[in-house]
Amino acid sequence: MSGTIAKLARVFWLMPGFLLWASFPPMGEKTDVVFALAPLVWLSRRADVKTSMRRWFANGFLFWFATLSWMPAIVKNGGPWPLVALGWAALSAYCALYFAAYGWLSAGFWAFAKTRGYAVRLATIFVAEPVLWCGLELLRSRLFGGFAWNQLGVAAVNAGFGSPAAFGGVYLCSATVFLINGAIASIAERMWKWDESGGWPRWSRPVETVLPVAIAVAVHWCSSKPLPEIEGEPRVVKTALLQRNFPCVFREREENPETVYRKLAENVAPYRPDLVVLSESALCEFGAVESLASRRFAAELLERTGARGVLAGGSRSEDGGEYNSAALYSAGAFEVYDKVHLVPFGEYIPGDKLFPALQKFAPVGSCTPGKLKCLDFGGVRLGVAICYEDTDSAQMRRLAEKGADMFVFITNDSWFSRSVEAEQHAWQAVARAVETGRGIVRVGNSGVSGTVSPAGAATWIMDGARPLVDAKATMFDALELPPAESEPRQTVYTRLGDKPLFCAFLLLIAGAFLLKYKTNHEKRRQLSM
């Protein structure tokens, strides 16, 4: 009987990973995120460092392996399955290491806090736990090129509780979510009546259980207060989105692109859009973005739709460098944005510029990063993101600093066609809108297309209850921008970025190592006496 209970207990300790996975697409049970990690937080407060680290890693691996279940979809597009399987497992294990790091650090903090009184315990709950978690999320999003995907705050933003992102980015949303998980863990501690510090004071009962939730609600309320209206007539940019869904680059062309785009253009022509947006790689079948064929194609779209501009993705070469680009075509004008944040092992192999032999292993060739800039569309400054650049909050913040009035996100998700990757990818874009206070137009190839308001309200092309992914479709929407004479609004996050979190995380880690050194020094002194 005891053996059966032990096995059931091991299964129970995988529930947090499952619940966290359920918070994101395909299940999309967004509210699960507020309690998914509570059992592991409770464990870190009472278990030894090794046990905490193992349990956090196991749940992290389960979460990431299930979340990244879209990676095998690349096999049907020509990706070699041994490399795909290896990459799937390796990326899952790598991301799970951040869970393990939290389990290790958190348990270490609690080993210290248990013997230092109730004030230290409160500091650990209200400061150390959320800062540790969010700092590790930030580290994962930046280190080695970064994998900024499915932070806790992403689920909160898509659930409609993302206003704190305007103050502290998606990581502040993660902090509020983690505080609530901590409050549930405190309730569990009281239920189990576990306390090694000699008893909690009576007044502490609501401090650990009610106050964290109150703080999370207060942060949301303060950050969601509407900004004062800007005087003047707002500018309106009427946008048309053309979602074609052409095959992945690994496969042969299946249809005449000009014929398909003509039909899609006919659908939006009656609305007389200002800007027509196509997906990443949409111009690859016409040659380089500056080629005569691409220019003729863009001119035809301008004529058929009556638009003032066409923005579409493609490639180009210059001075021996290959670029993944977005081109903006308008009457008598042509501008190009070259992708800055390249995807390792997709658009380049690390070290391939030093060792050219590695370049043949890059699926689309070894690309060169461009320079960050906005594109001028008749006085409207467009901040463009290609592919996974829309997950990079720091880059989108810099574009907002450069004066971007709105964002245009284009992506080619056909590598993972007919998988949940496209919907997960689109969720990240919603956070960028709230962080920067900018409206977004997003077009995906075998992806999710639509618009997002500065407050994070997403309007996707839908297929019943879910966003439409693998089908041809069009959409028209009008985005309101501040008057031309006014300066673009900058959110608190746009001004400060991740510096406050980064500094708090560094101070916390430095403090932990100093305390560890001091404790070890005292032990050595006692042994030497």
Kindly list the characteristics that best describe this protein.
529 residues; alpha/beta; Nitrilase/N-carbamoyl-D-aminoacid amidohydrolase
Q: Mind explaining what this structure looks like?
A:
This protein has 16 helices and 14 strands. The chain is α/β, with parallel strands linked by helices. The chain has two domains: 225 residues; 259 residues, Nitrilase/N-carbamoyl-D-aminoacid amidohydrolase. The strands form three sheets. It has a six-stranded mixed beta sheet with strand order 5-4-3-2-1-14. Strands 6-7-8-9-10-11 form a six-stranded mixed beta sheet, with helices on one face. A hairpin with a 5-residue loop joins strand 10 and strand 11. Helix 3 crosses helix 5, helix 7 packs across helix 8 and helix 11 runs parallel beside helix 12.
Detail the topology: elements first, then pairings.
Blueprint: H1 2-12, H2 15-22, H3 38-46, H4 49-67, H5 81-113, H6 118-142, H7 152-158, H8 165-192, H9 205-209, H10 211-223, E1 235-243, H11 257-268, E2 275-277, H12 292-305, E3 309-318, E4 321-330, E5 333-338, E6 375-377, E7 380-386, H13 393-401, E8 406-412, H14 421-436, E9 440-445, E10 450-452, E11 458-460, E12 462-463, E13 466-467, E14 473-481, H15 492-496, H16 499-528
